[in-house]
Amino acid sequence: MAQVAYEVVDVFTTTRFGGNPLAVIPDAQGLDDALMQRIAAEFGYSETTFVLPPADPQHTARVRIFTPAAEMPFAGHPNVGTAFVLARRGAVFGRLVGEQMSFEERAGLVGVTILHGDGDVTGAAITALRVLEVGPEVTPDLVAACASLAPEEVVATEHPARIVSVGMHFVVAELASRAALARARPNPAQFAEANAAVPLGGGGFALFLYVSTPGAPQQFSARMFAPLDNVIEDPATGSASAALAAYRVALMPEAEADVALTIEQGVDMGRPSQIRLQVRKAKGAVQQVVIGGDCVPVMRGELSV
Question: What does the pLDDT read at residue 131?
């Protein structure tokens, strides 16, 4: 029986037991695909990451991301949390890590910048792998049915509900009020119907609901439901936040912009999170989205495999 070290961190928060928990296996050498999947299911978090030596020695590591049910090509909070763990350890596979990291993943090469405060590692920021992709509109009735809301509570003040992506696809929809956001509840049967009617590709129907903060046009409160992927509600979703931020900046009339946005998530499930985003727009198109946030170590130990 072998012992495999692990660490658990809370991502996109400065408060332990807030944010989105992540399990990280800093040295996954010797673990096969089936065992990785079983370990991810054992932890039961929205994602678990497994760190392996890179194919190209110029890169920091190869990182594999598993939900309790399947492997994912890319996700936001697993990259931020994994970088935080490796930076605090100071080395990976016998090599020192620096302020910049690069992770080989199924979706491509992910660039990472380590964040510091008072001399300590506090978090990380990653750059979205792909440019903004804007997909079809989704009817308010469908969104409302999935979220157990009235159709009139799904609004189009800034944009209609629609599919957007910077790597992973989500349906983003504005709600009429913060109270409506708090009342939202996922209806799995309706999600199954929505998935058949509006397939997103690469995963089940995932719904990212949000409202703007009064008096703060670049601050938002959000919730994410993806029950078909065994995520009833996610406390912090970096990939969805990046897609929303990119889309909102794309809608701005300015051809050139560099915009900082903040998305608060997880409040309604007791795990408050804050995701910081920086979106650069040039010649009328979004060129880059950076997703960043703080992390907090929670526990470490060994798995017997």
Answer: 87
Per residue in 210-238, pLDDT tens?
A: 999 988 889 999 999 999 988 899 999 99
Helix (H, G, I), strand (E, B) or coil at 230: coil
- CA of residue 123 relative to chain centroid, distance: 14
Of the listed 7, 42, 47, 99, which one is catalytic? 47
47 part of the active site: yes
Nearest to 105 by CA among 59, 149, 62: 62
What domains, with CATH codes, occur in the chain? 3-127+294-304 (3.10.310.10), 133-292 (3.10.310.10)
Residue 304 CB burial class (10 angstroms; 0-12, 13-18, ≥19) = exposed
> H-helix or E-strand containing 278?
strand 273-282
Where helices occur in 27-184 by DSSP H, the ranges are: 33-43, 76-89, 140-147, 178-183
Rounded CA separation 124/129 (Å)? 16
Give every residue of the chain whose pLDDT is below 50, as ranges.
Answer: none
Q: What predicted TM-score, i.e. pTM, was given to this entire model?
A: 0.94
